[in-house]
Amino acid sequence: MNELINKSTELLELIWECSVDGLRLIDGHGNIIMVNQPYCKMVNLENEYLIGKLFSDVYHPSEREDVLKVYREDFINNKMRTHFERENTLLNNEKVWFDFSNSFLQLPDGDKVTLSIIKNVTARKKTELEIKESEKRYRMLFNNTNDAVFVIQLEHGSSYGKFIEVNDVACERLGYQREEFLMLSPSAIIPPQLINEYTSIMEKLFSVKDVIFELVHRTKDRRTFPVEISAHLFQYNSKQTILSIARDITERKIADEKLKRTSKRLRDLASHLQSVREEERTMIAREIHDELGQVLTVLKIQISLLSKKLNKNQQPLKDKFDSVSGVIDQTIETVQKICAKLRPGILDELGLVAAIEWQSQELSERTGIISEFIFPSDEITLDNEKSTAVFRIFQEALTNVARHANAARVHIILKIEKSNLILEIIDNGKGISETQLNAVQSLGILGMKERAMLFGGSVSIEGFHSKGTKVRVEIPYGKLENKND
Fold first, then answer.
1. Measured distance between the N- and C-terminal CA atoms of the chain, rounded to whole angstroms
2. Which of 202, 179, 178, 177 is CA-nearest to residue 190?
3. Where are the domains of the chain?
4. Burial of 191 by CB count in 10 Å (0-12 exposed, 13-18 middle, 19+ buried)?
5. pTM, rounded to two decimals
6. pLDDT in tens, 16-75
7. CB-neighbour burial class of residue 166 (10 A; exposed 0-12, middle 13-18, buried 19+)
């Protein structure tokens, strides 16, 4: 019998010392009866020091009274807390977290003691606290952004996936509670007529991983508002997940519409001013040609008649009449040039092609720059406004060639391509630079572009250093019936 008791005692002692957890036995007053080596390591104290001491003595003096008081009250009232975690400061000022598992034991002599199994969970608690703090910061950022944030996870058999997280802004703007959101898919907040567009964007997202696009969101009460969405695809829990950040762009859209309306008014005004300007030029050219031209012609006739009435012995006076007649001829020629510059009659009478040829010939006579042409075989029919716009752009391009290009030759191509009229002016000069193209003073280039834009067209200019400049004019083309028919 004694041998059996001895063996049991040895086994208990072996178990006590081999335990990886700290073991502590204390009486009702809190005095330490027995501890194992792992517990000694936990509190950084020797076994000899601990036996007979109050268990609270292992803690910092500022904590001893409280922990001892709680223990004694629990012990007296027989309501021991069986499991809990607590942070304490040890004698060496080290802060630790202990996990306690307590139970009462009844000794053979009738005394009651407390057995505590203690684990040092400081590392785990530190990690938990870091996670909580990280989550707190994440929640603060997630919910305090001005944009709506959605996290969507794609499930097998689901077309659009489901929301697995949304922020407070998303709930507020769309009128759903968070719990409601987590039961919905993105199709719930997208108008039905835009679902196909959203689907195609998602298909693109799967290949490029990041997309930015504009869409419309629909609230719970069926109101809609425009948004700009930045979407990113990533893997979360081995599933395809989409992070979408949606910015309400209602104010931007309103501003854009105002800007478009203002731009349209300005372009309409510019178009009207161009028309008025051309009408005034035409009227002035006609008035000069009809009025001044007729007066000069009558004056020439009168001078000629007077000259014929002079006698042979009045040769000096006749020479004066001939000189005046020559001045009148020069004046008539000058008037014709002024009229042609104001509004070339050939543009109205023979059309755009003839006007371009005439203007190019005038450039050659004035500067010596040789012009080469490629024109379509079919007749080009434009309304007066488009024809005038193209011709004025052409005039400005030739003026730039004469002033700045230092060119010897200019190649002119006029063609119809994909329902557009294309005019190209290519010189072999020094080539316009990017600085010149973007200069604030380049009002001529700006005017060319504005004229084309009034008709939904465009002007592009490319410079090639020491090789020349290419001007390309592109304007929608449509054959129109004669307005007089």
1. 135
2. 202
3. 2-120, 145-248, 271-340, 347-476
4. middle
5. 0.47
6. 767 889 999 999 999 999 899 999 999 999 999 999 999 999 999 999 999 999 999 989
7. buried
